[in-house]
Amino acid sequence: MDCPGPRLFPLHRCKTLHLVRHAQGMHNVEGDKNYKAYLSPQYFDAQLTQLGWQQVGNLHKHVRTCGLSKRIELVIASPLLRTLQTAVGVFGGGGYTDRTDALPLMVANAGNSGQAAISSLNSPPFIAVELCREHFGVHPCDKRQNISDYQFLFPAIDFSLIETDEDEMWKANVRETTEELTARGLKFMNWLWTRKEKEIAIVTHSGFLFHTLNAFGNDCHPLVKKEICNRFANCELRSMVIVDRSMTESDPATTNYPGKIPRGLDLPSDAPEEDGGGPKTNSVI
């Protein structure tokens, strides 16, 4: 029976997701003034504004102050310039200095940003995943560059999960439907269960987050549903826990402890007596 109120799940059947919308992009500024600006080729794969980089810096400080940066095991980013810039700026290391044992997460002035190079030292691994991109099609700001171009700008990010160098998802005259985007978002969430990491940061887009998260929370109080589904501000971070209640297999629990080591007499006081013959006890080994 599905009961209201708090619910309990084994920790090893859960994942913690730290969801981040990218910081302010050039297209956001003009799009707020006139929605038709999103159709302009001028904003192809839009980069962050200077205000956007300030937002990144503030979130970078926050994840370190609250200790989040030490817990994250993996950073997943949509392969567009604004999300890659946000991901490395928020979750990357400090300033990069030339060395042979560590590639930079971002080279200096990537995307004409005017920003210094960012180190990969003391940072979690970063991977780019096509499934968590923004709406495909029509808007040039949502079309990505070739992966070979990104690999030069972001040397320490793993792009191996992306199958084609050119953007074959984006179509000039066909915009992905809301239903298609939601289905892609759910496919992404299911893919997360194949990852061994339990605490993951995901840097993605407003539309992707809104339509994906709207598929969740229908069994919650309306205020909780609203908290899950509200649109994200630029560079907003929200932490959520997901669990698959239908899963029959999961990774072994790493913090559980079996007890009875060493074994002894430990029948609990509320255990039922068996057949009126008194409590049954374990023998000492």
Automatic annotation (TrEMBL):
Top-level division of the source organism's lineage: Eukaryota
SMART domains per the UniProt record, alphabetical: PGAM
Any single Gene Ontology cellular-component annotation: cytoplasm
Annotated region described as Disordered, given as residue ranges: 249-285
Molecular function (Gene Ontology), one example: phosphatase activity
Protein family membership: Belongs to the phosphoglycerate mutase family.
Function statement: May play a role in carbohydrates metabolism.
Protein name: Phosphoglycerate mutase-like protein 1
